[in-house]
Amino acid sequence: MNAEASSALVAAYPLLAELPTPLRDAVAAAAGWHEFRDGSPIFGEGQHCGGLPLVLQGAVKVFKRSEHGREIVLYRVGRGETCILTSSCLLGGADYNAEGVAEGALRVAMLPPELFHRMIAESPPFRHFLFAMLSARLSDLMEQVERLAFHRIDRRIAEFLFERSEAGFHSVAMTHQRIADEIGSVREMVTRALGQMAEQGLVELSRAGVRIADADGLRALAQGAVPADRPAGDKSR
After folding, report:
1. What own/partner pairs with CB < 8 Å and gap ≥ 24 does 68-76 have?
2. What percent of the residues of the chain are helix, what percent strand, and what percent coil, each to the nearest 5?
3. How does it assemble (predicted)?
């Protein structure tokens, strides 16, 4: 790894600067650099785990796919983060039980399994980083399970759109199928729910995607308010 690459890696993962010198040198020597185009597969279900990816650019979308082709997004791994599924596979010696694809132009540094285990053994900052990430992802997944089990589909759509708006996106250039994949539903149900939300003035639908028309109303729905024309017991998915 050259000096520029090493600086870029430390900039994305400052904890690497806290590693003991021999371990830091081992990371610089062993890290393999890879670049992927948007949509490229990173790993697949049943595949052996070849190392820990450290993301410097872009993101990895981790998802499960049913035998009928239906998808549900589990989480994304962005710059400065790590993949808890990969960590779990490395710790347990197991194969992947989900899939990962590149979102955007992806650049990662791959650490070999033996170096991953050495970092856990020799670096308290790395252990803290890894376990903090595991804890945060577990919390996110528990929240997702709660949404899937207990929230109506219109609320799940509102939650997804509101989270996008909080990130600065007031329109979502996605097909109904992609939104369904994001929230763990099917396209037909998403299309019907979006049509009802459009009638309520919450969103505007077009070929370009979905635009938020009433941010306050969308926030209320995301927080559990039930539209006047929808009974509280209806948990349509």
Report:
1. 70/181, 70/186, 71/181, 72/181, 72/184, 73/181, 73/182, 73/184, 74/98, 74/141, 74/144, 75/137, 75/140, 75/141, 76/103
2. 50, 20, 30
3. Homodimer.
Give ∠ CA 47-91-144 in degrees, rounded to 5. 75
| Plot region of 93 (φ>0 → left; ψ -120 to 50 → alpha; else → beta) | left
Give the tens place of pLDDT for each residue, 104-118: 999 999 999 999 999
Domains observed in the chain: 3-147 (2.60.120.10), 151-222 (1.10.10.10)
The pTM assigned to this predicted structure is 0.77
Q: How far apart are CA 46 and CA 68, in angstroms?
A: 17
